[in-house]
Amino acid sequence: MVRAAAAAGKHRKSAKFVFICVGLLGAALIADLLWATSSSSSQPSFTYKSLPLKLNSFPLPPLSSNYSAAKKDVRFLSKTFADLPGPQLEWEKMAPAPVPRLDGAAIQIKDQLFVFAGYGTIDLVHSHVDIYNFTSNTWGGRFDMPKEMAHSHLGMVTDGRYIYIVTGQYGPQCRGPTAHTFVLDTKTKKWEDMPPLPVPRYAPATQLWRGRLHVMGGSKEDRYTPGVDHWSIAVKDGKVLEKQWRTEMPIPRGGPHRACVVVNDRLYTIGGQEGDFMAKPNSPIFKCSRRNEVVYGDVYMLDDEMKWKVLPSMPKPDSHIEFAWVVVNNSIILAGGTTEKHPVTKKMVLVGEIFQFQLDTLKWSVVGKLPYRVKTTLAGFWDGWFYFTSGQRDRGPDDPTPKKVIGEMWRTKLSL
Questions:
Q1: pTM score of the predicted model
Q2: How many CB atoms lie under 10 A from the CB of residue 381?
Q3: Which InterPro entries did the record assign (predicted)?
Q4: How far apart are CA 375 and CA 180, in angstroms?
Q5: SS3 label, residue 38
Q6: Looking at the predicted structure, is the pLDDT value of residue 69 above 70?
């Protein structure tokens, strides 16, 4: 009995000691949480450092639900799917766009960024233009687009005054494309019709080169099949000089959502994808249905002989970058996009890097990280500042899948 009572006493003392330790640990955790909360709330509201995104790997879930916890093997994605290392940049948050946009378009003319159309939600599309002034850092000057003009997946380019707008998707969800083309006089805000494309296209690569408006690739009328067609038509000062489009050398690889840039009298196409969402058969609202997509980082250049040359590929496959580029100091700067889908969850993976393609050396590098991963963002560059606005951002530093459609405007100083 004495031994039993002594043992019980020892057991009560041990239990009390364990209880005290657990209590102290809990108090420490609560204090740490309160400190982190107060620290984050004290940060300035408009100056922002790029989040320290995981640089080289992204953990995969277990292969099955009954995968033994004791034998879990931590596996990692390849660099194709992971964030690449890059400098952390100081980002400043500017006035947001009047509306959030996905799959919109943007053209910079001097210190103004003309932002067109885009989805507000999957069931709502915009049919107007907003203007951001880089000198005053303000939005203003909204005006309407023609009623017949596409609302997303546009091809677009400028000669410094006139903006040429080519084809795209008309309406929300996954509705069909239009072959309509337009030209906008940015000084008078007047629109004029141009000859329609031979056939409609989604998100074709579009550029002005040697006096001709070039339109290449994109997706065909079903929104999924890659097009490799290449047409051009002569234009000058907002006027079309020919009655019909001319057939040119097909692009080596078709599909939408690629960047198309002219620098030093050379035409480049960068990145893109094959395949896209399609409308569900017989859906009265053209509800989007997911399909397989192949994202690539191919780079092509059109030379003097009108032949395509293959150049070094991007550091990772990248798509949804058609208006996410600027030209700085003989290099092309590209921001964000989407890469290959997650190999297990099959979800879309967004890109958070800023890439630089040096045109003298034909070398790629990562020159910075965005505040978050984002696709179809709209970029501009003025007085040493790199700007981006709109698109669809990720779910957080540890989840690269798309979530919120945004209208935020950010800028950072780029020293290249």
A1: 0.82
A2: 18
A3: Kelch-typ_b-propeller, Kelch_repeat-containing
A4: 26
A5: helix
A6: no
